[in-house]
Design a protein that fits this description.
This is Multidrug ABC transporter ATP-binding protein. This protein is of the alpha/beta class and 325 residues long. 34% of the residues lie in helices and 27% in strands. The chain contains ten helices and 14 strands.
């Protein structure tokens, strides 16, 4: 059991498990520390356990075992203190459709025992482009505006930690841009952001650190830049003057693939390797009389890494299952 979180960790999860009455194991001994003031992106396929973990941390679902500390407070034994530090933007729209925007946001602040602060609420609504809609009923708003109200509710009591569970799923480009601008401003104020997302390019742009969860297990947590350096690959694409029907037999020892209907050779190599092998490859291509008209390199994206990690773990699980059968 945890007896206290580290000073720089605002969320500490220790050996968290969750088994539902059906027997489904949603979480299998997850441990995680989230640093104060960081943007942490939790990635994983549907059903991996992302929403379950967030729901347990926020006190909405009971864990089967394990412990969660929020700013040093146990979220079961000291629920109110822990929960008051958290703002949650859920996937589903949960607003009272008959209330006005203003009444909804004021009520949310009051529920956490915060004193009235209309100036702060006005600032939040203006940042979310909701100020002009403050007197309208929720039911009259568009889907995108309803999601903005959820964010305003989550921010109304000035939380130290903000959970965004698939916040931009199904929203328009304008709202997505506004939301990420808001996230940057919140981080500048010291708010810790934890998000789950299907838009991996957003995690690549926004997150300081990445966690990957699969089938209820946290298979990796790493600083984003370190992750991309350690697990990233680079590709050198050679544009050819004349197309090839296949990779020449003399080049089969190189990690090459044919692309662009034979007009390109793609060479994949380890980004952190001391020797890339490019000079030797280019020399061999020249010896074979293959004319190269252009070349360019690229680095693997976070999405490439994520897909590779999940696929690799799935293969490992299948092999283990085969050996135990």
């Amino acid at each position: 059991m945890i007896v206290g979180g580290r000073v720089d960790s605002i969320i500490v999860v220790d050996n968290l498990t969750k088994t539902y009455e059906t027997g489904f194991r949603a979480l299998k001994g997850v441990s995680l520390s989230i640093r104060r003031g960081e943007i942490f992106a939790l990635l994983g396929p549907n059903g991996a356990g992302k929403t379950t973990m967030i729901s347990i941390i926020c006190g909405l679902v009971n864990a089967s075992s394990g412990q969660v500390l929020v700013d040093g407070y146990d979220n079961v034994r000291e629920y109110r203190k822990a929960r008051s530090r958290i703002g949650l933007v859920p996937q589903e729209l949960t607003n009272n459709m008959f209330d006005s925007v203003w009444a909804t946001v004021r009520l949310s602040r009051g529920l956490f025992g915060k004193p009235r602060n209309d100036a702060l609420l006005e600032q939040i609504l203006r940042e979310l482009s909701l100020w002009d809609k403050r007197e309208e009923r929720i039911m009259a708003l568009s889907g995108g505006m309803k999601r903005r109200v959820l964010i305003a509710k989550a921010l109304a009591h000035e939380p130290e930690v903000l959970f965004l569970d698939e916040p931009t799923a199904g929203v328009d480009v304008e709202l997505r841009r506004d939301m990420w601008n808001m996230v940057r401003r919140l981080q500048e104020r010291g708010v810790t952001i934890i998000l789950t997302t299907h838009y991996i390019e957003e995690a690549e742009e926004m997150a300081d650190r990445i966690g990957v969860i699969r089938q209820g297990e946290l298979i990796l947590t790493e600083d984003k830049n370190t992750l991309m350096q350690q697990l990233g690959t680079r590709q050198l694409t050679l544009q050819l003057q004349q197309p090839l029907e296949a990779v020449p037999e003399a080049l089969t020892g190189y990690p090459l693939a044919l692309g662009e209907q034979g007009y390109a050779l793609v060479y994949t190599f380890d980004a952190k390797a001391e020797q890339s092998g490019i000079a030797e490859l280019l020399k061999r291509i020249d010896q074979l009389g293959i004319e190269v008209r252009d070349l360019h390199s690229s680095q693997s994206s976070l999405e490439d890494i994520f897909v590779g990690l999940v696929h690799s773990r799935a293969q490992t699980d299948q092999q283990a299952a085969g050996e135990s059968a």
